[in-house]
Write a structure and sequence with these properties.
five-stranded mixed sheet, 2 helices, about 20% helix, elongated, binds dinuclear copper ion
Length: about 180
């Protein structure tokens, strides 16, 4: 059977395209460090979060040093602020360290998205959203609520300050 050169080129190009598509999808799935937020954070009573009597760290949210190279950040989202995160209480974490964000809501559905990163989750009352990341660049990152949560939704935001690991001092957690 005679196959024209031109046809061979087109065949080759089509096969390359298919292989390329499969490669980019595979990379996006497993290679880029992106994972879905699952239900590993567990459940909590939104009413208790609101009243501050959950009996968990959410009653006194903030950054907790879990071990030498891991911090856990407890954040309460509520109309229309993040505690900590909003106003004059930025979330301060060390660079090059595993940072686990545990975020829950005291009222309605909010969003928790850190600009310039792939940290992005819904915050659903009754659930604890859990996201782990490592910041390898220091600086201040914007924090935004990206789920409509009421009249002042557009004002709900804050910041995350990533400081060099050797300059990081754990914040006082009072309780
Ligand atoms: Cu909270 Cu929008």
């Amino acid at each position: 059977m005679q196959v024209h050169n031109f046809e061979k080129i087109w065949l080759g190009a089509a096969i390359l395209l298919i292989v390329g598509f499969i490669a980019t999808i595979s990379y996006g799935t497993v290679g880029a460090g992106i994972s879905m937020v699952d239900d590993s954070g567990g459940q909590i009573s939104a009413q208790a979060v609101q009243n501050g009597n959950t009996g968990t760290q959410f009653d006194d949210p903030g950054v907790v040093q879990a071990s030498e190279d891991r911090v856990v950040v407890y954040v309460v989202a509520q109309q229309f602020q993040f505690r900590p995160g909003s106003g004059d209480t930025p979330i301060r974490v060390p660079a090059d360290t595993r940072v686990t964000f545990k975020v829950t809501s005291a009222d309605v559905v909010h969003g928790f998205s850190i600009a310039e990163t792939n940290i992005n989750t819904m915050v659903i009352p009754g659930q604890v959203a859990e996201v782990t990341a490592v910041f390898d660049e220091t600086g201040t990152y914007g924090l935004v609520c990206h789920e409509y949560c009421g009249a002042a939704h557009h004002t709900m935001g804050g910041s995350v300050e990533v400081v060099p690991k050797d300059q990081y001092e754990p914040q006082e957690v009072s309780n």
